[in-house]
Design brief:
Mean pLDDT: 91
Number of helices: 2
Radius of gyration: 21 Å
Strand content: 35-45%
Oligomer: single chain
Number of strands: 18
Order of helices and strands: HHEEEEEEEEEEEEEEEEEE
Shape: globular
CATH topology of the largest domain: Immunoglobulin-like
Distance between the termini: 81 Å
């Protein structure tokens, strides 16, 4: 009988513990309680597609990162730096550029603040708050970019600077026909040349980009990102033939 009571007590304790784990990550403030955190350590942004209620959240999962979570506020009229205002979003990510990035699709009828977290080396890494603007400033989608190939296998991409206002940084991706990311870079200038990092302020490319093959098809993607991490402009998979 004593053994049975002991087993029951252990079962109850385990159930309570599991419940507390589930509850503890509902609020961001609870999730990070008594944990080592690093703010601004997750690269993430968001934009809208043609449907104004659809918000696309993009995250760069650092090598070894696990347990990615999304948190949102009820409205934009809150203190975005107060983690007690953020509630966990139950959404699954999907691979973007064959998993080099992650994409999360949200249906939002109102604008909110969003934070992305993941865990790395025993710490919780936290993105800067993302201000969604799917209603007030929907992302623009275009394929307008000038591709200068005067230097063989090193195309130079130029686009209109701060076309829609509120630009803070530009994110560029060069990918192959199979959608594999070859180069992922950030610049403050509205120009980028493949394999040339002289104006690159952040490089997420983990290996040396391969030399482009003359006559082979490639794609160029651009995100014009605001200071509050909203994508003002998308140029998605603009195709070109390497010369």
């Amino acid at each position: 009988m004593k053994v049975l009571k002991f087993i029951l007590l252990i079962s109850i304790f385990t159930a309570c513990t599991n419940d507390s784990i589930v509850v503890d990550d509902i609020l961001l403030s609870n999730y990070i309680l008594n944990r080592t955190i690093e703010k601004g350590a997750v690269i993430a942004c968001a934009g809208s597609n043609e449907d104004a209620s659809k918000v696309l959240v993009f995250e760069y999962p650092a090598n070894g990162a696990i347990n990615t979570k999304l948190y949102e506020t009820e409205t934009i009229n809150v203190d975005e730096s107060d983690f007690t205002n953020y509630t966990k979003v139950r959404v699954e990510g999907k691979p973007f550029f064959n998993g080099y990035l992650q994409q999360f699709d949200l249906d939002l009828s109102i604008e909110k603040w969003i934070i992305v977290t993941h865990e790395l080396d025993g710490e919780i890494k936290i993105s800067n708050p993302i201000r969604t603007k799917q209603l007030s400033k929907a992302s623009n989608w275009t394929d307008e970019v000038d591709i200068d190939q005067d230097v063989s296998t090193m195309p130079k991409f130029n686009w209109e600077k701060d076309q829609f206002g509120d630009n803070a940084i530009y994110f560029q991706i060069v990918s192959d026909e199979q959608n594999n990311l070859l180069s992922g870079t950030y610049t403050l200038e509205s120009t980028f040349q493949y394999y040339n990092t002289s104006n690159v302020v952040l490089n997420i490319t983990t290996e040396t980009p391969p030399t482009l093959l003359i006559g082979a098809p490639y794609n160029f993607t651009l995100m014009d990102v605001s200071e509050d991490n909203w994508v003002n402009l998308f140029i998605l998979n603009k195709s070109f033939i390497a010369e």
